[in-house]
Write a structure and sequence with these properties.
single chain; alpha/beta; six-stranded mixed β-sheet; elongated; binds adenosine-5'-diphosphate
């Protein structure tokens, strides 16, 4: 549905996007993930036709955005990071305004009502946008993207600045929209892509460093899991047992909070689930395991690992080239 090939963009002599290629299949929700300054907005602005690329091809449902920009743009609904709202208009006035701007041909009243019902803003349709909460404003922003029923929806950081309840509502809404639309969701929040997206493209310094199914990416970078185990038993012996257990890479004392238990940080070897062997080993010794928690990887950890892996590969290449 969206096909991007060798896309490049520089600002002066700063290369912001360095020849990236990826595609999004029909009905897929793609997470576009990267740290600040990675090139996400630049890429999205090129896909939506707001910014012209230096080179490369963007096709929306087979239409080249350069050759037929009007047709290509009709297939895209965009929610920028700051929704383009007119605060002095009521919700319905604003949606009518966007309807005209887009030159939408669908039956006006029915189409706008349907959209308002989907994003749940029909009750506030006659309120001034400036009097709406941030969560509702974001819904209005999503509503304007839906006008014309575009095949592709692009959301740039749609949950930024919302409270936790609003975040869940907007994520659920995006997931629901994903049943009928192809979606690109740009974000720097990992749990967000985990919750919503089928696949993740990670961009860093203008280059793609990963393009995988969500589960595969999380497993690949999180292959060696870290656990915190709270164990009652003689510290030195427990540590020796842990370090002697097959599948454990490292084990260290993390701290002592309760009177009789000690917390240990355990890292298992790649793709090994250490929890059961750990339980049996401790039970065999008569040392109660009173707590076991996974240490969640942060987005920073994932970037460091991905970028680290890239660097390793580069180093290998350089070495080979040098021989
Ligand atoms: P992201 O959306 O991932 O935060 P951007 O696409 O906004 O990244 O920016 C990518 C790089 O291009 C950054 O280094 C940024 O400083 C630079 N950049 C973005 N917009 C401009 C601009 N208009 N002029 C010059 N440099 C820019």
């Amino acid at each position: 549905m969206v096909e991007i090939t060798e896309l490049k963009k520089s600002y002066g002599d700063k290369q912001a996007v360095k020849g990236i290629s990826f595609s999004v299949a029909e009905g897929e929700i793609l997470g576009f993930l990267g740290p600040n300054g990675a090139g996400k907005s630049t890429t999205l602005n090129m896909i939506t036709g707001y910014l012209s690329a230096d080179s490369g091809v963007i096709k929306i449902d087979g239409t080249d955005i350069l050759q037929d920009p009007i047709k290509a743009k009709k297939d895209i609904g965009f929610l920028p990071e700051i929704p383009p709202l007119y605060l002095e208009m009521t919700v319905l006035e604003y949606l009518n305004f966007v309807y005209d701007l887009k030159g939408c041909k669908l039956p006006r009243k029915q189409h706008l009502k349907e959209i308002c019902e989907v994003v749940k803003i029909w009750d506030v349709r006659n309120r001034l946008t400036k009097n709406l909460s941030k969560g509702y404003r974001q819904r209005v922003g999503i509503a304007q993207a839906l006008i014309g029923n575009p095949k592709v929806l692009i959301f740039d950081e749609p949950t930024i600045g919302l409270d936790p309840r609003q975040i869940i509502e907007i994520r659920n809404l995006i997931r629901m929209l994903g049943r009928e639309h192809t979606i690109i969701l740009s974000t720097h929040i990992l749990p967000e892509v985990q919750a919503v997206c089928d696949r993740i493209v990670v961009i860093n310094k203008g280059e793609i460093v990963a393009n995988e199914k969500t589960e595969d990416l999380i497993n690949a970078v999180d292959g060696s899991r870290k656990l915190v185990a709270k164990i009652v038993g003689p510290e030195d012996e427990v540590l020796k047992t842990l370090r002697g257990l097959g599948g454990i890479k490292t084990a260290d004392v993390l701290g002592k909070r309760d009177t009789d238990s000690v917390s240990y940080l355990i890292e298992s070897q790649e793709r090994i689930d250490i929890r059961k062997p750990l339980f049996y080993a401790l039970a065999g010794k008569g040392w109660p395991l009173i707590g076991l928690e996974g240490v969640e990887l942060s987005l920073e950890d994932i970037f460091i690992r991905l970028v680290g892996k890239e660097k390793e590969n580069e180093d290998k290449k350089t070495k080979k080239g040098g021989k």
